[in-house]
């Protein structure tokens, strides 16, 4: 968190405005939905996604001031991300996120689903008002991708035959798609050429995948205090990620835990120890590193400026989360 704050210090003022606007955008139209939305936006958050959008805008504008449409896209990106988290928490029955009670545990499941739908609807409204059809198409696809990713994940709970390719594809739908489309959208608003738009898409895609892989490693190696939720949550929910998939190639005893769906009291903790005592964590780190390198490669031809250096530093900093 401290590392990201340092990297984003140059756009701190923009992020403060964004935080204020997020609360205005949800609007107090219904007390319960507004309370749920306010609860979400008051939660501890790095706002890394809108920050990346603003930085991509600065690079693609080649030092010309970013536009109000860029700022609105950054806000839309954070609202869509937040809406997806609300629905994810309901599906996975998470009680806390970032150390704060989730919406469905604070209110109830019905309110949480409605709050998520409400946020998606608000994001769609503000997206339409950008008056940029290509950006609308790009970002609208993300909401479809979220649903696709959630369905794929749901159909593969406790599926020990899931491959790394399946995992990467699902991770793209659930995480990387939004960052990729938002970065491309920023370049579109800047009227950048198609090659620049595509490079920003690739930057966001690979950055998003690296983020997800890193999060999944931390779900195994982190503590409840650092994660804001119990370690091994993915294992318990039957959501199999890179560390487990790699560990299954080496530690066949893990199949016993999977077959009984980690029902015994110490199953999750024991499985975590088995994964840690394999080559799986290192293999997952190597996979994250590959995507970090791909994100940096996508930035190579972009305009040299401070914002580009920060985007590069964000990519490189991902692995520091694991140290």
Topology at a glance:
Blueprint: H1 2-7, H2 12-26, H3 31-42, H4 48-60, H5 68-92, E1 96-97, E2 100-101, H6 103-106, H7 109-128, H8 133-155, H9 164-189, H10 194-221, H11 224-227, H12 233-237, H13 242-248, H14 254-259, H15 267-276, H16 280-299, H17 306-317
Antiparallel strand pairs: 1-2
Helix pairs in contact: 2-3, 2-5, 3-7, 4-5, 4-9, 4-17, 5-7, 5-8, 5-9, 7-8, 8-9, 9-10, 10-16, 13-16, 16-17
Care to give the gist of this entry?
With 323 residues, the chain is mainly α. 73% of the residues lie in helices and 1% in strands.
CATH domain class name? Mainly Alpha
Q: SSE order, as H and E?
A: HHHHHEEHHHHHHHHHHHH
Question: What is the residue-averaged pLDDT?
Answer: 86
Main sheet: which strands, in order across?
1-2
* 3D shape: globular
What structural class results from the helix and strand content? mainly alpha
Reported for the largest beta sheet, the result is: 2 strands, antiparallel
How many strand units?
A: 2
Look up the CATH topology: Farnesyl Diphosphate Synthase
Poorly predicted ranges = none
Family: Belongs to the FPP/GGPP synthase family.
GO molecular function: metal ion binding; prenyltransferase activity
Cofactor: Mg(2+)
Protein name: Prenyl transferase
């Amino acid at each position: 968190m401290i590392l990201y704050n340092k990297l984003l210090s140059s756009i701190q003022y923009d992020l403060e405005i964004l935080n204020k606007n997020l609360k205005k955008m949800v609007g107090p139209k219904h007390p319960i939905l507004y309370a749920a939305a306010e609860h979400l936006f008051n939660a501890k958050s790095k706002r890394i996604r809108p920050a990346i959008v603003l930085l991509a805008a600065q690079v693609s504008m080649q030092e010309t001031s970013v536009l109000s449409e860029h700022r609105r896209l950054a806000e839309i990106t954070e609202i869509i991300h937040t809406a997806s988290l609300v629905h994810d928490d309901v599906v996975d029955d998470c009680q806390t996120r970032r150390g704060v009670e989730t919406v469905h545990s604070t209110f109830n499941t019905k309110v949480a689903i409605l709050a998520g739908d409400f946020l998606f609807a608000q994001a769609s409204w503000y997206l339409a008002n950008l008056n940029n059809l290509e950006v609308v198409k790009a970002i609208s696809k993300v909401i479809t991708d979220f649903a696709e990713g959630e369905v794929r994940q749901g159909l593969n709970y406790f599926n020990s035959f899931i491959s790394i390719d399946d995992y990467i594809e699902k991770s793209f739908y659930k995480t990387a798609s939004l960052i990729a489309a938002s970065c491309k959208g920023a370049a579109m608003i800047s009227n950048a050429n198609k090659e620049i738009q595509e490079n920003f898409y690739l930057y966001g895609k690979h950055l998003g995948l690296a983020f997800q892989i890193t999060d999944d490693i931390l779900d195994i190696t982190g503590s409840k205090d650092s994660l804001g939720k119990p370690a091994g949550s993915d294992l318990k929910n039957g959501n199999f990620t890179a560390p487990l998939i790699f560990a299954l190639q080496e530690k066949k005893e893990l199949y016993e835990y999977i077959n009984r769906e980690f029902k015994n009291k110490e199953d999750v903790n024991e499985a975590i120890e088995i994964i840690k005592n394999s080559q799986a964590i290192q293999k997952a780190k190597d996979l994250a590193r590959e995507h970090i390198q791909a994100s940096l490669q996508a930035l190579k031809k972009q305009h040299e400026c401070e914002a580009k250096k920060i985007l590069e530093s964000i990519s490189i900093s991902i692995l520091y989360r694991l140290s």
